[in-house]
Amino acid sequence: MTDAIPLTQAVHFARTVLTLRGVPDDIALDVAEHLVESDRVGYASHGLSILPHYVAMLDGGHADGAARPECFADQGVMLCYDAHLGLGQHGGKVVIDAGLARAHEHGQCIVTLKQSHHLGRMGHYGERVAAAGCILLAFTNVIGRPPMVAPFNGSEARLTTNPLCFAGPMPNGRPPFVMDMATSTIAMNKARVLAATGQPAPPGALIDAAGHPTNDPAALFTDPPGALLPFGGHKGYALGLAAELLAGVLSGGGTIQPAHKRSAAAKNNMFALIIDPRVSLDTTWQTAEVEAFTTYLKSARAQPGADAVQYPGEYEAANRARQGDSLVLAVSSIAALNALAASLGIAPIDG
What we know:
By secondary structure, this protein is α+β, with helices and mostly antiparallel strands. The protein folds into two domains: 1-60 and 324-351, Hypothetical Oxidoreductase Yiak, Chain: A, domain 1; 68-184 and 230-279, 2-Layer Sandwich (Ribosomal Protein S8, Chain: A, domain 1). The protein has helices at residues 7-20, 25-40, 51-59, 88-106, 122-131, 188-197, 234-250, 283-298, 314-323, 331-344, and strands at residues 5-6, 70-74, 78-82, 108-116, 135-143, 164-168, 177-181, 206-207, 213-214, 227-228, 267-275, 326-327. The longest helix has 19 residues, at 88-106.
């Protein structure tokens, strides 16, 4: 690992890289802050390590750094957006904020987004919604690239990692509840990190090109490739299908079926529901009930050798507190980012 890099320095670096590739400053800032925060809360797979890939997608015309999401349907409590292949961390922020405004007014809002470049860490949006006192249920699918997740009982990929995100505020100063998970056993970017660092994948996460179980993440990048597996067998598989259909069909962006063109760039579609419980519900009772349940949950004895029981979101909060106002990045990530800096003629991220 490297020495700590101040958050402001990391954000400035990513923002500078993107603006040099023609990205407007406000969009570049949204992307940079999102990537840095992903590293800060413990998700290097969705942090600055993917910045070189974003630059390659911009340079190759697979993403439009200047594109902004366009609302093409406004039905009061449903807002539908087309991202026009714009950078997802900006587009996602715009549509989630629009949905929050409507939820504050009506109590709920459905938002959809199609044809977005990579949306990034979905928990980032969950935290944003929770900070506004609201609840988020979001489903995302991935099109535009070959599938990478095998269906239950299948030996060939037919899906992608199709993440789910559920989030909401917690009472009495507790960190927000943030559940952000791929419906595959591990995320594709996580597999890339494991392969790059020579680490094995968890048991039950992968099959090779012949359909046999393997712990080698490099099996995903052979020709023909292996595949990720859905988490939890048929249960995770069913959730992945729900995400595919909700995000792909209701957004209008499409599913991963092969009639839709595939290339080097992934495109995200999203279907999300934002609820503001304060508009029409008894929040005093809600707060007391959530606190009582959380206290009961966390009172369970930990298993031998395990830490205390946690709920989703505490992991991120603990990492954020531990990192403080700086980041510690892997040596491999620093090397890749500094190579990118050299190619652009700017100072290294750790300079």
